[in-house]
UniProtKB/TrEMBL annotation:
InterPro entries: DedA_domain (IPR051311), VTT_dom (IPR032816). This is Cytochrome B561. Signal peptide: none annotated. Keywords: Membrane, Transmembrane, Transmembrane helix. The keyword Repeat does not apply. GO terms for cellular component: plasma membrane. Pfam families: VTT_dom (PF09335). The chain crosses the membrane at residues 54-78, 98-120, 132-159, 171-191. Residues 51-155 form the VTT domain. The keyword DNA repair does not apply.
Amino acid sequence: MIRRLYDWTLRMADHHNALWVLALISFAEASVFPIPPDLLMIPMIIARPSRAWLIAGIAMLSSVLGGLLGYAIGALAFDGLGEPILAAFGKADAMAEFNARFVDAGFWAVLGAGVTPFPFKVITIMAGWTGMPIVTFLVTSILARGLRFFIVAGLLWYFGAPIRTFIEKRLGLVFTIFFVVLLGGFLLVRYL
């Protein structure tokens, strides 16, 4: 089953609408959606390495725009939208403590969440809720998401064929490692 899903994803990654789907997923992931855009971005770059920089750029731009939606949710609709989203990630009970820590480390929190598997939407909503200056949020988001997506794109572009061979030969192992890292990110959010 994993092999069929992988093959389907590679076929879809080369589909004429793949960039639009990536943009939509990147946008939604930064504010409300739990699935990271890397799931589509990686096979898209493996399928078409010549488009690595375009793919990373679209993921970054869409993610930053989605982050602005998350910021707006936190600033303008925290009680109705932001709090339920954060509650889904286990953050509702620790809001006051998290708020104090976030205000102290705002730039670093956005940078860290933007680069790591930590759900970016938690930070985007918190940035709006705590009143982080929008320019600081925007610059940090561009830096963080740019680092994350362009490093992934660069590695896949440079090591493309060997990475694809490695993934295809050890698909079960790669799939397991990816989900362990993803689950670790969610657990980190829940117990941070």
